[in-house]
Amino acid sequence: MLQSSNLTFQYKKTDRLFRFPNIDLKTQENLLILGKSGIGKTTLLHLLAGILKPSSGIVAVNNVDITRLRDNSLDRFRGQNIGLVFQQNHAIQTLNVLENLKARLFFSYQKVNLQKIEALLAELDLLDCKTSKIQTLSEGQLQRLGIALSVIHEPELILADEPTSSLDDANCKIVLDLLVKQAAKTKANLVVITHDHRIRPYFQNTIVL
Ligand SMILES: Nc1ncnc2c1ncn2[C@@H]1O[C@H](COP(=O)(O)OP(=O)(O)OP(=O)(O)O)[C@@H](O)[C@H]1O
Fold this sequence. Notes:
By secondary structure, this protein is of the alpha/beta class. The protein has one domain: P-loop containing nucleotide triphosphate hydrolases (Rossmann fold, 3-Layer(aba) Sandwich), CATH 3.40.50. It is 33% helix and 22% strand. It contains six helices and ten strands; from the N terminus they run ββββαββαβαααβαββ. The protein has helices at residues 41-48, 71-81, 97-107, 114-123, 139-151, 169-185; strands spanning 2-9, 18-19, 23-25, 30-34, 56-61, 64-65, 82-85, 157-161, 189-194, 205-208. The strands form two sheets. Strands 1, 2, 3, 5 and 6 form a five-stranded antiparallel β-sheet that branches. The chain has a five-stranded parallel β-sheet with strand order 7-8-9-4-10, sandwiched between helices. A hairpin with a 2-residue loop joins β5 (56-61) and β6. α5 packs parallel to α6. The longest helix has 17 residues, at 169-185. It is globular and about 50 Å long. The mean pLDDT is 92. The structure holds adenosine-5'-triphosphate. Residues 11, 14, 35, 37-43, 195 line the site of adenosine-5'-triphosphate (ATP). It comes from Winogradskyella rapida. One of its GO terms (molecular function) is ATP binding.
C-alpha cells in the first residue's frame, strides 16, 4: 500500500516549489503518473522512493512513513520493499546476469535462492544469457534485466521511470505486460511515470501532473 499526502519539494538554490497530488493505493492497485517534460515526474518518483526528502508531507509504504526513516534504516527499507526500474541500465557491469541478481538479493538482505532467480530469468526470457556479461546484452535483454532486478526481491512497491518511452508499440506492450504481471504475482503496487499515453489502458488509476 502506498500513500502520500501534502507532498511538496524544492530543489536547493531554486525558487520553484513542487506541490504534488495525494496518492492512496490499496494492495495491488497500480498508478500511472502522466505529465509533460519538466513538470516534476521524476522528482515525484524519487520522493516516493525515498531518494529525495520532501520539504513537507509524508510518503507511507506499507504503513511506514519513509520520510521519517534515517539513512541506514531508509536504505534497508528501500532495499527490501521498493523495486526501481530506471530508464538507463543500472546493472553492475563487472558482473554477469546471474551475479547481478544474486547481488540484488544480497543487498535486499535476502537469502540467495538460485531456483527463484532462474525461474524469473526463464519468465523474462533471459535464461539463455544468465552467464552473459552486461555489455553483451541487447537493448531488449537489458530492459528485461532491469525488470528482473526490480522485482527479484518481491518488493511491496515497484516504481518505474519512463519504462516505455523509447520503445516501439510491440516492445512497449511486452515491457508493460511483464511489469503488470510481475507486480500482480507479488501483490505489489506498480507506479509508472511517463509521458507515454499509449500505456494508459493498463492502469486503474491515473494522475496527470
Ligand atoms: N537537482 C536539481 N536541482 C535543481 N533543479 C532540478 C534538479 N533536478 C531537476 N530539476 C528541475 O526540476 C524540474 C522537474 O524535473 P523532473 O526531472 O522531475 O521533471 P520530469 O517531469 O521528470 O521531466 P522529463 O519528462 O523531461 O524527464 C525541471 O525543471 C528540472 O530542471
